[in-house]
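User: Please predict the structure of the protein below. I'd like the answer in structure-token form so I can feed it into my own downstream comparison script.

Assistant: Understood. Taking the following sequence of 281 residues as input:
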Amino acid sequence: MCDLTFDKSLFENFDTHTVLDRLLCSYNGLPKGVNYMIIGDPGSGKTTIILDLLANVMKHYPSARILFVSAEMNEIDLAVYVNRYPKFQYLNILFVESDFSEQDNSHNLTEIESVLNQGWDIVAIDSFYELQGIVKEEENMRMKEAENRLLAMIKRNNKAQNQRNINTTFLTIQQVTKSGNFIGSNRLKHSITAMMELRFENPRNVFSDRYVVFSKHRRGDVGVKLYYDLSATGDVRFDEERFEKDARIRRMQVEVANNLRRYADRFDELFSNPQGTNPQQ
């Protein structure tokens, strides 16, 4: 690593200017050239959270090139989102759909590779599994081969191998099983920088509180919950007050644990037997 050099701008993150920045990275904001995968309970708002994140970044970084690749929803579906969140209408969106006609000559993979090669700062994909299935069918390959092609494409752009030499960050929504577990190979799981999960406080009740939490994170903390609300129009509302309260409790717990360790070490020093002393004396 001592022989490698990087442009300092690579470590200047994109801020959403919400409390979510504190979860995205230990030094705040969305890093460049990384892969974040988003999974969650059905109805938890995965697409909404990601579109909100993209729109917030675009608002504060007008020159940033941001792309949303939609493999699940068409233009009509997205219109519903724009109704509730007008800021979404300004995002660049690439719609990927399979042609179900008998003469299916479409090659979405070629188009996606060509578009990504233009060089983008942030690309969100909804969803990886659906896109993988489309590539499998159109290119007549196995699911594993389709996954490999998509991962290779993502890695190239992570490393700025595109026309603008941009280290692209990918936010990839992935489907889950009915029990809420990750769908995908171990290779896919290990290739990501972080796993963001969107969960209900009570999985059996879609009206219970929702929260964001990272179960894997090479750039930040795991297990820290950030609660959010999708009921308002215009913006996703993150519960910053609750987040700060929970942070204070965690700091207190760490302080108490450290004090206990110090007292235990001091106790051991005071009452441990000096070297060579007979414990029965």
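That's the full token string. The mean pLDDT is 90.
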